[in-house]
Amino acid sequence: MFVADSVLHLLLWVAGTAPVTGSAIPTKVSTDRSIQPLTPPCVNGTPAAQAGNNSWPIDYAPVGLAGSDAGNYTVSQGWYNKHVISSTYVGVGPGNDQYAAFKCQYVCNAAANCASYFGKYVDDGNGDSHYECILFDDLLDASIFVLDSDTMPGGGYNRLCNATREGLGSD
To answer: Where is the signal peptide (predicted)?
Structure first.
């Protein structure tokens, strides 16, 4: 009976409901949730692009600057530092914004906790430009964009709550 009582006590302790009765077993259970995958934030809206003739489907909502501010801009450094997950280059040159954004969505889909991405062209130092996908753990908002004459943006995109993304199913 002693073994059964010990096993029951251990199971209750693991569940966080064990009474303390002079036992040497600690009663505090960790509440660290960092090991559990999180669902990244998302928005309801319309995909940036539907599949069709000369169109690459982008199942993320576009975010950017409008009007006269829509020139060269990037994500503010403070927001970037707080929310960046990673960045990668895709083999796409200038003039292919939609195709580059299409490719970036798959990078974001594959990254844990990716809520949004920002694309921009980066000079490789040899006179060529490559498209950089920067992934974030929070949603982009036009208020976090800052003007930057050195950045040739492809745009920002937020994860859609209701999108069906290849390999991931519907949210």
So the answer is: 1-23
Average pLDDT over the chain, rounded to an integer: 75
Give bridge partners of residue 146 from the DSSP assignment. Answer: 74
Q: Where is 128: in which H helix or E strand? A: none
Strand partners, 165: 169
Question: What ranges do the domains of the chain cover?
Answer: 1-31, 60-170
What pTM does this model have?
0.70
- Strand, helix or coil for residue 15: coil
Residues 151-162: pLDDT tens digits? 788 889 999 997
Q: What are phi and psi of 103, to 5 degrees?
A: -70, -40
Pairing outcome for strands 84-90 and 145-147: unpaired
The contacts of residue 22 (CB under 8 Å, 6+ apart) are: none
- 154 vs 17: CA distance, rounded Å: 53
Distances (CA, A) of 145 to 11, 41, 90, 157: 51, 19, 22, 13
CB of 162 closer than 8 Å to CB of 139: no
Alpha-carbon dihedral 40, 139, 72, 163, rounded to 10 degrees:
60
Closest-CA residue to 163 (of 53, 64, 57): 57
Q: Residue 104: helix, strand or coil by DSSP?
A: helix
